[in-house]
Amino acid sequence: MTTAPSIDAVFDLDALLSSEELEWQQKARAFAQDRLLPVIEEDFEAKHFRREFVKELGDLGFLGMHLQGYGCAGAGAVSYGLVCLELEAADSGWRTFVSVQGSLAMSAIHKYGSEEQKQQWLPGMAAGDLIGCFALTEPQGGSDPAGMTTTARRDGDGWVLDGAKRWIGLASLADVAVVWAKVDDPEFGGGDGGRAVRGFLVPTSTPGFTATPIDGKLSMRASVQCDISLDGVRVDGDAILPGAKGLSGPFGCLNEARYGIVWGAMGAARSCLEAAIERSVDREVFGKPIGANQLIQAKLADMFLEVEKGILLALHLGRLKERGTLTPAQISVGKLNSVREALAIAHEARAILAGDGITNAWPVMRHAANLESVRTYEGTDEIHQLILGRELTGLNAF
């Protein structure tokens, strides 16, 4: 049997990384290979999320790892991106978990919460003892948060929340939900007939809060996404996030999650490429490995180019983020490119694997299915195209 060279040996990305960044990457790669890969096909088939892995991820420092203090690792943006890449090389669902926990729920509390809120929730979430979710998307308007219908009204010294959310990761497992709702109290940003979007920390044990896992998914099957019903959910007055006023609050968290996707999608793409290379070396047709054919080598070369370009783009964005100069439009460049190219690579790899490519003997169809979800959440291709179009023309086409 011929052994294919490692794609890492063809393009020396390690030379661009610090020893600390490489250490984070290797730690994530080891977890993915030792814990996730042996069970992920079974879990995908069974629609099973392994709750016991959450604590392990916390022990490794991956949860909220880019945040400072409160038990968080305080790692750099590139280190966090590399962890996302390695986890998604195993399965998009596990990178999604780390994103929901750290980039969405924990970031919301860290960015906008009071000191009391940070102390109450962040250490347990960083350790994997507590799970959070981020309840923004609604059934009728995933790409239009300004049109949300969930409301929060003052009731004495507290708040009452009513409404519905959809496609909320981890909600049925979570201990706390960051719920975004519109308020019409002038003291809290409303008034003049308008309503401002504010964030609330809602313990999921609160009466009236119901999270129902969404069934029938053909993607992200080893992950959990839910419908949420908020029926007269009453929380204390101090449940509001004091630092988040308007849509800049949830968008600030979404950009954190989008950044992780830029790296993560390239992990799925790398996994598909590696499968295609392995199969092209092992499978013989007409008396020779299919990888000895020019057409196959051309396909592999093109796939490899896109993986390496995508990782280099992610690295560039990571360095900008560490300097504090990364813009939302630049994140849109990364999210749009990484997911679009990862899907194209997954489809090309499936073709190279021929009939065997549709089976779970190879990870390619699972990655392709998962990437359809990644393509949709945190902004569809079209949303990011419009963000970039506005940046290029100065004209708003939304």
TrEMBL record:
Acyl-CoA dehydrogenase/oxidase N-terminal domain ranges (all copies): 19-129
Enzyme class: oxidoreductase
EC number, UniProt record: 1.3.8.6
GO MF annotations in UniProt: fatty-acyl-CoA binding; flavin adenine dinucleotide binding; glutaryl-CoA dehydrogenase activity
Reactions performed catalytically: glutaryl-CoA + oxidized [electron-transfer flavoprotein] + 2 H(+) = (2E)-butenoyl-CoA + reduced [electron-transfer flavoprotein] + CO2
Record keyword Metal-binding present: no
Entry protein name: glutaryl-CoA dehydrogenase (ETF)
Record organism: Agromyces cerinus subsp. cerinus
